[in-house]
Specification:
37% helix, cytoplasm, Protein-lysine N-methyltransferase KGM_206213, alpha/beta, 215 residues, single chain, 7-stranded mixed β-sheet, S-adenosyl-L-methionine, two-stranded antiparallel sheet, protein-lysine N-methyltransferase activity, SAM-dependent_MTases_sf, 7 helices
Length: 215
């Protein structure tokens, strides 16, 4: 039985992100405000800490799918990683990311790229592919949710080099749902522990972070 799709939201639309990042560019230029980190900084830093400790060479090619304001990439740069690429389909996001990070972290490169519609072959292969929230946004799009999710999974898998990893954090899909969605194209490796809560006798997490390996 297939999982039902998420209820659509403006968070899944290009228009929403274009307007949000345009506003954040103005806020940064006026007040130095670097903008929101989706799911919060704690969630991002847990993943960065795991990546930094997992034995990955510091020159490993890393790509952040839907990098937004570049927060995760800048934290990886602080950990000594030197081969970093952020892609986003929203040019305004990358304008903001470059304003925030280019002076302190010139090793980070950015590229406007639509993973659903563009050819991932031009990007090459990566030892680590990272996603925090992009799969969620695709899953919230009012149009072609399932079709676009399937496309995303296929393309993300194509970006992983031999012995490479895919790390995904979601607040809309559970760990078991993510494993089910991605297991046709990738092999489950482990979970990155996240804070849990208990309600009504059931234990759950606010976000789920799952690591996969190339099949």
């Amino acid at each position: 039985m297939e999982d039902s799709e998420l209820d659509s939201s403006e968070l899944g639309t290009y228009k929403y992100w274009q307007e949000a990042y345009s506003k954040e560019i103005s806020n940064y230029e006026d007040h130095g405000d670097t903008g929101d980190v989706w799911f919060g900084e704690d969630s991002a830093l847990r993943v960065v800490t795991w990546i930094a400790a997992c034995g990955l060479a510091r020159d490993t090619a890393i790509i952040d799918l839907g990098c937004g304001n570049g927060y995760t990439l800048s934290e990886l740069a602080k950990e000594g990683f030197t081969n970093l690429l952020g892609i986003d389909y929203c040019p305004e996001a990358l304008t903001l990311a470059e304003k925030i990070t280019k002076e302190e972290f010139p090793v980070i490169k950015y590229k406007v790229f639509d993973i659903i519609n563009d050819d991932v072959k031009v990007l090459g292969k990566f030892g680590l592919v990272h996603d925090k929230g992009t799969y969620d946004a695709i899953s919230l799009n009012p149009e072609n949710q399932r079709e676009n999710r399937v496309k995303y999974i296929e393309k993300a898998a194509q970006l992983i080099q031999d012995n490479g990893m895919f790390v995904i954090t979601s607040c809309n899909w559970t760990e078991s749902e993510l494993i089910k969605h991605f297991s046709d194209k990738m092999k489950f490796k482990c979970l990155i522990p996240t804070p849990q809560f208990k309600f009504g006798g059931k234990v759950g997490s606010v976000v789920s972070s799952v690591v996969f390996e190339k099949i």
